Amino acid sequence: MDAGTPWLLTSLVYLGAAVLAVPLARLLGLGSIIGYLAAGIAIGPWGLQLVTDAAAILQFAQFGVVLMLFLVGLELEPRRLWALRRPIFGWGSVQLLGSTALMLLAGVALGVDWRLALVAALAFSMSSTAIGLGVLNERNLMATTSGRSVLSVSLLQDVAAIPILALLPLLALPGAQAAAADGGWLAATKAVGVIGLIVLGGRLALRPLLRWIARSDTPEIFTAASLLLVVATAALMESVGLSMALGAFLAGVLLAESEYRRELETDLQPFKGLLLGLFFIAVGMSIDFAVVLAQPLLTLALVLGFLLLKALVLLPMAHWMPIPLAERPVFVLLLAQGGEFGFVVLQGATLAGAIGAADASLLVAAVALSMLLTPLLLAGIDRWVAPRLASAGRTQRPQEIAEPQHAPIIIAGFGRYGQIVGRLLNANGLSATVLEHDADQVETVRRFGWRVFYGDATRLDLLRTAGAAQARVLVLAIDDIDQSVAVARLVREHFPQLQIVARARNVTHYYRLQQLGVELIERETLDAALMSGRSVFELMGWERHAARNQALRFRRHSIELMQRMAPHSGDEKKLIALAKQGREQLEAQWAAERAEQAQARGDWQRPTE
Amino acid sequence: MPDIVVLVAHPQQQHSRVHRALMRAAAQVAPARVEVRDLYALYPDYLIDVPAEQACLQGARLVVWQHPIHWYGMPPLMKLWLDEVFAFGWAYGPGGHALRGKDLWLVASTGGPAESYRPEGYNRYAFDAFLPPYEQTAALAGMRFLPPLLLHGAHRASEDEIAAHAAVYSQRLARYPDWPELGDLQACAPCAVPGDARPDAAR
Question: What is residue A1's DSSP assignment?
């Protein structure tokens, strides 16, 4: 490559390859990850040879994974992370230890040296967090059971990478690296110290610091600070030999409750996307096709063999966790593939002298190939397996999917509002399929015996699974206005038979729903406020029944007025004028009634005869 | 403008074969002439739109009250409708001439069989004994009270009986005012209410 302005040329190559390959891959329905991998192969040593030093790029691009885990951490408040402790440590350990043991046994049974078998088993048992979470994000599956399960297992793998890397030197061939394990205690103390520093610093110092930076009112400095925060955390972790990604994840979790969460997220998102893309390009480049071509059958057997063995562990896991039938293939595949930590483990093992360089490059190729295969297999699953599972699931697993399929009512959003509706219906023997996107909320109401499904109702496929095509009524009780409108639009478009009964957070929300053709809308505060108004009347000495009548009449007036104002919902001036006019009319009407009553009473008191 | 207004009041319409059949029959007569108003469906919250009801009555010649007899009278929403719509100064009292000259027809059903409305039956009185409040309501509003159409023993009526009854009902509505017995009926004698008799009636 030219020595003049190398970074300019390199950027040209990378950006050009990505910009060409990714849209092409998406056009073919293969997803962006395949596009990046293909771009990597194309520009790498086995393609056009535009870039040759894949390893250096891979190291740099790993920062994309770090950023990604920081962002994942931002989405998980400590509370929710704590709720995930069982899937992380329980199921994560089952996956890691189970796969490692199975593959070790298989290796030894085939006559491989146990050290090599163990290193290979450990490396293969890792799964790609980048591809896994990338795929889940691309498909909006993060909020589902399988999404959180993949995340949990990946997190445990990140944690486990630390002791694995620490133990690798012990596997070293005798005499190769005798002094490697020295100072183990010191390293452990340092590691604990750094984690403590991150936790304490994140809890106490970060928020005031971010506030101070935000007050400077310079957006790019806030972006720089966001990046600096992740880089610094990663560097701290790196310095004591811990996983950078894990440190970034921790920092993210600590900031998840802060007011800067959305800002950090928005600032870092593009960096994460590009670096992650670069990471995939680097993976594509790092596949050593010389090794693959030298022993094509062995490589293929390795890839298929480890995918199969890991699937043997993952399938029963998916059954017991349990993960809905339709989500299982994705879950199994995402965790069965190899991952970037596999590279790290293999690199570490080579350095420690536990395995030879030739074996290492074969194993690296196998891991990389599995990462290349994953998006392809996924596309295959989507086309051929998933539809069949989705339809089979209806008949085979009545307790999970079939029954709600036929519930005539769907309640989307099971917060304070949806719950009241649900309780009323349930008490009268009507069953409803309940969707709620907040995992905590789901867990809470499940404890009260409700059958609630995790899920984001703005997803068409989820609505379909919930039985939207057969149901009669959708109770739209989602808190978030934009999501509520999105669901209404989706239902209007795809399930015209489904009647929507909607909760409106405010008048604007009401109009937006109305414009989509929703007819049964309740403003969430109207009735409660009217009841309070009734109470005031009563305290002012009105008869209870009169208070009730006036409140109900006011309700009718309010709804009529809103209907009259609907055509002008964009025009604030007109709205104000109409509201004023409506209020005056009502006041005049009621004043006249009061006068009439006073008149009548006056007549009564006047002596007759 | 429909000249017949049928007010249906049944708190549990779903359980009433008779009133569902009657309402269907009324609705099928001639939609341009007959307006059927199902009070329990219109006002599930018992919040009656008085101006709308009065406007509807204004153009009618015949007002039909179609309801089951509950506790020897009309269901509560029908009574509330009467209380609020037949207002002082509108339906009766000074200036209350809105309904004068119109006809009022009661179409009612009873759960008890015809035999129970006898001195020896468990209802102890002939059914006519329960009608004076209706007759006088009509009289006070200046309306002519037409001979009621009754179905006794509604719970045990066979489908055929109900169909026959509904047929009579729709025939009557279709032929109105061309009924043989109407020739003999006197126009209602006016009952003037002095202005200070019920001063607080206007709500």
Answer: -
d(Cα A160, Cα A121) in Å, to the nearest integer? 14
Torsion over CA of A83, A89, A94 and A99, rounded to 10 degrees?
A: 120
The secondary structure element, H or E, covering residue B6 is strand B4-8
- Identity of the residue in A556, A601, A606 whose CB atom sits nearest the CB atom of B200: A601
Q: Tell me the one-letter amino acid at B145.
A: F
- The enclosing H or E element of A133 equals helix A129-138
Other CB atoms within 10 A of residue B51 CB:
10
Instruction: Verify whether the Cβ–Cβ distance A603 to B199 is below 8 Å.
Output: yes
Q: Which of chain B's residues have a Cβ under 8 Å away from the Cβ of A557?
A: none
Collapse the DSSP code of A74 into the 3-class scheme (helix H, G, I; strand E, B; otherwise coil) and give the result.
Answer: helix
Chain mean position to CA A508:
29
Q: What is the DSSP letter of A325?
A: G
Q: What is the rounded average pLDDT of the residues A134-148?
A: 75
Residue A596 and residue B200: Cβ atoms within 8 Å? no
Record: contact A553-B47, CB cut-off 8 A = yes
Closest residue to A600, CB basis, from B45, B49, B199: B199
DSSP structure class, residue B115: G
Q: How far is B196 from chain A (nearest CA, A)?
A: 7
pLDDT band of B200, cuts 50, 70, 90: low
Distance from CA of A200 to the nearest CA of B (A): 59
Angle between helical axes of A219-239 and A54-75 (0-180°, round to 10): 110
CA distance A421 to A598: 43
- Nearest CB to B200 within list A549, A600, A606: A600
Between chains, do A596 and B47 touch, taking CB under 8 Å as contact? no
DSSP bridge pairs for A475: A411, A501
A597 interfacial to chain B (CB closer than 8 Å): yes
A554, A603, A609: best to mutate for the B interface, most B CBs within 10 A: A603
The pLDDT of residue A395 is 35
Q: Identify all chain A residues contacting B199, using CB atoms and an 8 Å cutoff.
A: 600-601, 603-604
- Whether B44 has its CB under 8 Å from any CB of chain A: the answer is no
Rounded CA separation A447/A433 (Å) = 17
Is pLDDT at A144 greater than 80 in this prediction? Answer: no
Q: How far apart are CA B65 and CA B135, in angstroms?
A: 13
B160 touches chain A (CB under 8 A): no
Sort out which chain B residues have CB atoms less than 8 A from A527's CB and list them. Answer: none
Contact B47/A549, CB-based, under 8 Å?
A: yes
- Please give the ipTM for the structure prediction: 0.75
Phi then psi dihedrals of residue A521, to 5 deg: -125, 135
A600 near B CB under 8 A: yes
Tallying the residues shown for chain B, one arrives at: 203
Residue with structure tokens 């008890």?
B112
Q: Mean pLDDT across chain A, nearest whole number?
A: 80
- Listed as own residue / partner, the contacts of A382-390 with beta carbons closer than 8 Å and 24 or more positions apart are A385/A329, A386/A326, A386/A329, A386/A330, A389/A325, A389/A326, A389/A328, A389/A329, A390/A325, A390/A326, A390/A465
Q: Which of A552, A596, A606 sits opposite B45 (nearest CB)?
A: A552
Q: What is the mean pLDDT of residues A523-542?
A: 94
**pLDDT tens digits for B41-87?**
999 999 999 999 999 999 999 999 999 999 999 999 999 999 999 99
User: Other C-beta atoms within 10 Å of A427: how many?
Assistant: 8
Report for A27-36, A232-241, A535-544: range of highest mean pLDDT: A535-544
Q: Read off the pLDDT of residues A179-229 as tens digits, 9 standing for 90 and up.
A: 444 456 777 788 788 888 888 887 788 878 887 887 777 778 878 888 888
**Which has more confidence, A276 or B157?**
B157
Task: Mark yes or no for CB contact B199/A552 under 8 Å.
Answer: no
What is the pLDDT averaged over residues B34-40?
Answer: 95
Cα distance between residue A333 and residue A136, in whole Å: 12
